[in-house]
Amino acid sequence: MTAPATPSPLALLQRCHLESLQRAYDEVLTRLGLDGVLLFSGHPRRHFADDQEAGFAAYGHFMHWTGQADLARSWLLIRPGQRPRLKVHAPDDFWHLPARLPDEPWVEAFDIEMARADAPPALPAGHFAVLGDVSAALAETTGAARNPATLVAALDESRVRKSDYEIACLRDANHRAMAGHRAARDAFLAGGAELDIQLAYLGGSRQRETALPYASIVGLNAHGGVLHYQHYDSVAPARRRSLLLDAGHRHRGYCADITRSWAGPDADPAFAALIEGVTALQRRLIGELAPGMDYVDLHRRMHRALAELLADQGLVHCTPEAAVAQGITRAFCPHGLGHSLGLQVHDVAGRVNGAGRPLPPPETDPALRLTRELEPGMVVTMEPGFYVIPMLLAPLREGAAGGDIDWSLVERLADHGGIRIEDNLVITPTGHDNLTPPE
């Protein structure tokens, strides 16, 4: 008789992850007086007056158990002390391939029903909650409480610190994304248009566009200064000054989020020096990552370091302290230093403490998405930047700070757009581990 195959290291990590999840849910549900929770994966939305559906990713808490980002209209019932029950929507269909589960050891931890209908499973008597993108009418049919805030907050907090399995998935997602970045860089240096670069990224990272965790930002020249630039020009510009590429990968539900900037053959030498400066700045800030670090304080340190860089490169003629105080650094970098990362690119519970108390960002930095103290197991991005954004710089030109900025150098850099260097890091008990491989 053939001996059963030995589970892979990842499968063993996933088994521990699921066992830990069961214990965490048991504790939370019991504490809140609930007999169970029903998680709905969600469903894609149809375009108006059409039968075509928009892109889709399953509900985060559903993915926390299954890792299945594209499993729509499916349900997962979790009850203390009982095996999870997974109802997969797999209708008879000759237009589309019905949903399937992977042939992997983790499925053995679930009681699985492959169902033609997408109705929720019938719940036994008791007190239940239903979570996800569930209408009030549908929730009423289950007899369960719809998205109770206390339960959602507790489960969000359970995703803040990642298990060893989750970190392994995030590391793999980073490696796959970086392969795409290398291919995209080569396409840029070969003279490709934004569309060519995006296609090279998809090929290098081995994924289709609908599987991306977010729409890639592929900004040539001035487009790199549009923080969420959303187009792909199909014609290459006459001059290739710069590329900003912000692109990721989703692996087993978990997201990589990496940004790189490159100078082109027509770049001003000052731009290449700024890329080196922002990269060095990011490395310095990464070196400070450790448990107990206040991320808001680290964000403030980023602005101080950026002010020093601007002074060193001759963009400002005042002290670093004055550049920060006058809002100069925030005009050149209006976004936050980073955010939590996991099953969602901007993962949950970034602006609350462990007890669920809100931790709003400073008034000066409303875009900062992570405001809590760092703990072992957290995964965060580190993404300082520098951009020439005319609408943000115009008030400075007209105000008191205008005399402290070298506007001729700003104009030389305007067609280069911007710079962002972004890595993904896990906080360890003694410091940090960079999940993003080198280029």
TrEMBL record:
<feature type="binding site">
    <location>
        <position position="383"/>
    </location>
    <ligand>
        <name>Mn(2+) 1</name>
    </ligand>
</feature>
<feature type="binding site">
    <location>
        <position position="422"/>
    </location>
    <ligand>
        <name>Mn(2+) 1</name>
    </ligand>
</feature>
<dbReference type="InterPro" id="IPR048819">
    <property type="entry name" value="PepQ_N"/>
</dbReference>
<protein>
    <recommendedName>
        <fullName>Xaa-Pro dipeptidase</fullName>
        <ecNumber>3.4.13.9</ecNumber>
    </recommendedName>
</protein>
<dbReference type="InterPro" id="IPR022846">
    <property type="entry name" value="X_Pro_dipept"/>
</dbReference>
<feature type="binding site">
    <location>
        <position position="257"/>
    </location>
    <ligand>
        <name>Mn(2+) 2</name>
    </ligand>
</feature>
<dbReference type="InterPro" id="IPR001131">
    <property type="entry name" value="Peptidase_M24B_aminopep-P_CS"/>
</dbReference>
<feature type="binding site">
    <location>
        <position position="422"/>
    </location>
    <ligand>
        <name>Mn(2+) 2</name>
    </ligand>
</feature>
<feature type="binding site">
    <location>
        <position position="339"/>
    </location>
    <ligand>
        <name>Mn(2+) 1</name>
    </ligand>
</feature>
<keyword id="KW-0479">Metal-binding</keyword>
<comment type="similarity">
    <text>Belongs to the peptidase M24B family. Bacterial-type prolidase subfamily.</text>
</comment>
<dbReference type="GO" id="GO:0102009">
    <property type="term" value="F:proline dipeptidase activity"/>
</dbReference>
<dbReference type="Pfam" id="PF00557">
    <property type="entry name" value="Peptidase_M24"/>
</dbReference>
<dbReference type="InterPro" id="IPR000994">
    <property type="entry name" value="Pept_M24"/>
</dbReference>
<comment type="function">
    <text>Splits dipeptides with a prolyl residue in the C-terminal position.</text>
</comment>
<feature type="domain" description="Peptidase M24">
    <location>
        <begin position="169"/>
        <end position="428"/>
    </location>
</feature>
<dbReference type="Pfam" id="PF21216">
    <property type="entry name" value="PepQ_N"/>
</dbReference>
<keyword id="KW-0378">Hydrolase</keyword>
<keyword id="KW-0645">Protease</keyword>
<feature type="binding site">
    <location>
        <position position="246"/>
    </location>
    <ligand>
        <name>Mn(2+) 2</name>
    </ligand>
</feature>
<keyword id="KW-0224">Dipeptidase</keyword>
<keyword id="KW-0464">Manganese</keyword>
<dbReference type="InterPro" id="IPR052433">
    <property type="entry name" value="X-Pro_dipept-like"/>
</dbReference>
<feature type="binding site">
    <location>
        <position position="257"/>
    </location>
    <ligand>
        <name>Mn(2+) 1</name>
    </ligand>
</feature>
<dbReference type="InterPro" id="IPR036005">
    <property type="entry name" value="Creatinase/aminopeptidase-like"/>
</dbReference>
<dbReference type="InterPro" id="IPR029149">
    <property type="entry name" value="Creatin/AminoP/Spt16_N"/>
</dbReference>
<keyword id="KW-0482">Metalloprotease</keyword>
<feature type="domain" description="Xaa-Pro dipeptidase N-terminal">
    <location>
        <begin position="16"/>
        <end position="155"/>
    </location>
</feature>
